[in-house]
Write a structure and sequence with these properties.
50% of the residues lie in helices and 20% in strands. The protein is built from 8 helices and 5 strands. The chain has a 5-stranded mixed β-sheet with strand order 3-2-1-4-5, sandwiched between helices. It is globular, with a radius of gyration of 18 Å. The N and C termini lie close together (11 Å).
Length: 207
């Protein structure tokens, strides 16, 4: 992939997300491999505490019949989508004053298709998998609602993919990510590192 010119990328920025059950780490990045800049870093809530079970909707649905399970998951999905869109919209509104938002990078799992709901609810490992996909999809749909093209990045491949799009060896990339964290101060955990990589992939691969 041909890299864009410095002038073309000077004010471009992208968002990155790593989801958990009911919340996510969100970052915004700009710059280049030589001068990466973190524009924003925050935790966003994507589950409505007023809805029982909203942080783990498939766990909550496991004791219900399929019809009621579908209703609960649907209600949780609607409220989570609303919360995610509001949080992303706020980020976009703030950043758009100085930058051109070009995309959203979201960390996903293996991408294996899930079976029907009844089969998911009979399997504890599948319940965990489904919940992970639930919150990642919420972020993806919310990003699209905010007119941000979504880059789905498999988490196990994120370091290699980022190194490829930025034309860096893995070790120098890791050092730059660590250096960026030291310049910002805590927190700079795995969540922030991987969300930043996803954002830089979205930035590099933007049209």
């Amino acid at each position: 992939m041909a890299m864009k010119s410095k002038s073309a990328m000077s004010n471009a920025a992208a968002l990155g997300f790593r989801a958990h059950s009911g919340w996510a780490v969100a970052v915004a990045v700009t710059g280049s491999p030589g001068s990466p800049i973190m524009l924003d870093r925050r935790r966003i809530d994507i589950a409505d505490a007023a809805i029982p079970g909203s942080k783990q909707p498939y766990h909550a649905a496991a004791s219900l019949d399929v019809r009621n399970a579908e209703a609960l998951i649907g209600r949780c999905q609607e409220s989570s989508a609303w919360l995610a869109a509001g949080a992303i919209n706020a980020l976009v509104a703030r950043l758009s004053e100085t930058h051109r938002l070009v995309g959203s990078g979201i960390l996903f799992g293996s991408g294996r298709p899930l079976p029907e709901l009844a089969a998911i609810l009979r399997s504890h490992p599948l319940i965990h998998t489904a919940e992970g996909e639930f919150f990642r999809e919420v972020l993806a749909r919310a990003s699209e609602r905010c007119s941000l093209p979504v880059k789905r990045v498999k988490e196990r491949e994120v370091w290699d993919r980022a190194a490829g799009v930025w034309h860096l060896e893995l070790r120098p990339l890791q050092e730059r990510i660590d250096t960026l964290g030291r310049s910002l101060g805590p927190p700079w955990r795995q969540d922030e590192k991987l969300a930043s990589l996803a954002a830089w992939i979205a930035l590099a691969e933007s049209a």
